[in-house]
User: What shape does this take?
Amino acid sequence: MTGKRRGLLWNVARAALDRVRAASRPDFSAVPPLKVDTSRQSEAPVVYYLCPDFDEASGGIRTLYRHVDLLNAAGVSAAILHTREGFRCTWFPHDTRIVYAARVTLRASDVLVLPEVYGANLRKVPRGIRQVIFNQNTYLTFSRATLESAEERAPYQDNPDLAAVLVVSEDNAEYLRFAFPHLRIERVHQGLDPTVFHPPAQPAGRRIALMPRRYARDLVQVVQLLRARGSMERWELVIIENRTPRQTADLMRQSAIFLAPSNQEGFGLPPVEAMACGCLAVGFPGHGGREFLRPEWSMPAEQGNLIALAQALEQAMRLHMENPAAFQELARRGTDFVRQEYAPQAERADVLRFFQSLLAQAPREARP
Assistant: This one.
């Protein structure tokens, strides 16, 4: 059997395995039964972050855990709310406070934070508890909608318990303000851990890091376009999959370039993490990434144009080989920007300011 045929069979088998895995996964958009007692106030109101029972690498879930840690460290009682008894994420280290839906009774003074991934199922959350929708990717807001349906907008429009919506980028704030101008929309910055995501002591060699979990087809096309041109001969691909944050950061520091064909992203955390680790980011802004994937310190390509993306990657590779000083200066500017703009203290300030303000307000009376 030729290598080409083996490769084809492997790709077919892998695609079939991916379909089986997707079909066998539980529905993480199902809201668990929640007990509510609106007749009682909590002595110390608790901020509960409802979180899917999903134990694979997910920047969005790691952000939920981090918010809870920030609140508890500041003296604001908070907890991750999982459905399955005993479940906790194991793919990154943490000592986050976790509680389980069957053991919790929500009080009128508590706050329930709901990720956007629950979609129209958010309508099933019991009434009488203040809600905050944490929408980390507004392009998922209507992802299950049809041209006629109204269910997906109901949690935002027909919800007297909704106090505010949190987002993680200005692009997403603009999206929701256009759709729901009556809502309170607040942006909270993402925070990078500088002990994990930091540049290397020495410039990286000819390696291109990428994460194929979401945009594998686009990545394959770009890489094969440049292989056909002979541009990849002296470069190594670093494929990052199923790694802890520290392992991911180590691989990024070993790479000169990070390739990110993002599309309809609420923010786009991987390229930001890569820039913090000293990579020159090349990719599509994906809308949410327009605030950091800028030509002053990266190489953005026209959204969706694979030829333009391949050309930008080739330009970055050529700059690295022909003018390494200019390459390092460009990458350094990107590193400096993201480490300042997305510093942990910026995230902490945003999260605390929002929840301290919300908890200072008296909860609404329970409604039927």
